Amino acid sequence: MSRAMDGGRAVVRRPDVPLRALLPLGLFFLLALVFPFLPLGERSEYLLQIAFFTLVAGVLALSWDILARSGQVSLAHAAFYGLGAYGFALLGKVMPWFLAMPAAALIAGLISLILGAVTMRLSGMYFAIATLAFTEVVRTIIQNLPEATAGGANGLLVPALLGGNARAQYFLAFGILLFTALVSLAIRRSRLHHAFAAIRQGEETARVLGVSVVKYKLLAFFISSFLAALGGVLYAGKTFFINPLETFSLANSIAPLTTSIFGGLYTTLGPILGATVLRVAEEILHNSIKNGYLVVYGLVLMLSILWLPRGLMGLLRRGKHGGDV
Amino acid sequence: MTATQINSTGTRLQGQDLVIENLAAGYGKVQVLWDVSLRVAPGEFVAMIGANGAGKTTTLRAVSGVVKPSAGRITLGGRDITRAAPSQIVGLGLGHVPEGRELFPLMTVRENLELGAAMRPEARAVQAQTLAHVYELFPRLSERAGQLAGTLSGGEQQMVAVGRALMGRPSVLVVDEPSLGLSPLMTQTVFGALRAVNEQGVTVLLVEQNVGLSLRLAHRAYVLENGQVVKEGSGTELLADPAVREAYLAL
């Protein structure tokens, strides 16, 4: 209220994101930054690889969450992840990686506008099914492109990112996740935050409040798919071999969803934290229970959703309501 | 809460007129409005009364641009908004308090209010003052600012819905059935606030089933029946009209 009485001058009040709330996020990125310099011992190569894919999982989850903020619970994330991977594989042959990377992401972002336009009037389950079908369509098209170009069902070799230097690749992934987080924070502070929240909770009301529903839904699709495709570029450039079945697998659509729910929906830190905890847990379980680790993994997910309806973020902000919705 | 106080902060709201001419509209093949014409002068408080299904809500939805008219013309402050998108109409200064309040239940009261200002740059620029103004109008809301809107009572939710529309700094406010499900006391509070808003210069078009109260409050009123305006007059005239008394006041 005190600021409201600011002598009648125009005060632009932005949605509150107190610095204190940014502290855990900053801490995460600080840790991620120094991680490769830690004395990791003889398993450092393995650990760095896990860390790399944790960052990619974070990009995927956070980019999915951005789309979910506009009420569009998509199962097409694998499509844009895959389009990024394939776009990079093909463009990487004709242009340097630092151009192929944004170009691939831009193509994925533009294609997402088609899906966004087609699914504009769908919601809930119908929307989810349509996005799922879209992923299959994209996969089928890629698989049936001339083998000389896209490799068909057998897959495609990809130019290794940064000459295969694991540490450099790690820092590139770090940069992409940081970029994704900054985009997410920028959305939180802009009118997009309000537009997305309004659309998510009631399109009709959003419209009478002046939200251009079509524009903002498409914008959410574009941003989300662009970022997901950057994740796909990282994946392709790291594994330097991709095939349609794995790249466009349902798991790549489901993982960002479960990760965001587990970490905390509609937040910046939540999906990143979720990706970190889940990837590390998955790796530990995989190493300790060779058979059936997925069963335990699934149980952990189920129980945490039961007991932590607001995800890990619910633990961090116990008792506080609404701040991030 | 006086108009001069608001003047001192330079945030007095300026009313515009709203003119509807020969409006026809409907949903798919079902035509709801056949011929609706009404005029709300700048700063005027006009009520539209009528039975269920008469077309009151559809008229307001056409004004907001959510329903596209099949014929007729709507102007806001002299500008034609008949075919404009809802976001453009909000940009021109229309505030809509929808039927059933339609709050965002998982957002706090304050977030709901802020949303009302988010889509109009000129409203965003003075958001803090408008928020203080809304809290003055409804002190209860400042007490409940951090509470989830879904946990409020019906009356408090209606206050948020009115406040949210005011946050967009509208020159014309259309209000759909604010007394729905409210206690008589709460209805009085909400209507009192609408009158205060109107006295500050905002044009108000109110749709209500509580005919007695709205006729006493409004400068003028229109009676809508089967998608047509069948009567108009000052509030007192209509209150004295035997047909209106029989049909809507059960007297």
Automatic annotation (TrEMBL), chain A:
The chain crosses the membrane at residues 21-40, 46-67, 74-91, 97-118, 125-142, 168-187, 218-237, 257-280, 292-309. InterPro entries: ABC_transp_permease, LivM-like. It is a multi-pass membrane protein. Keywords: Cell membrane, Membrane, Transmembrane, Transmembrane helix. The keyword Cell membrane applies. It holds the Pfam family BPD_transp_2. This is Branched-chain amino acid ABC transporter permease.
Automatic annotation (TrEMBL), chain B:
Residues 13-251 form the ABC transporter domain. It comes from the Bacteria. Pfam families: ABC_tran. InterPro entries: AAA+_ATPase, ABC_transporter-like_ATP-bd, ABC_transporter-like_CS, BCAA_Transport_ATP-bd_LivF, P-loop_NTPase. The keyword Nucleotide-binding applies. Keywords: Amino-acid transport, ATP-binding, Nucleotide-binding, Transport. GO terms for molecular function: ATP binding. Belongs to the ABC transporter superfamily. This is ABC transporter ATP-binding protein.
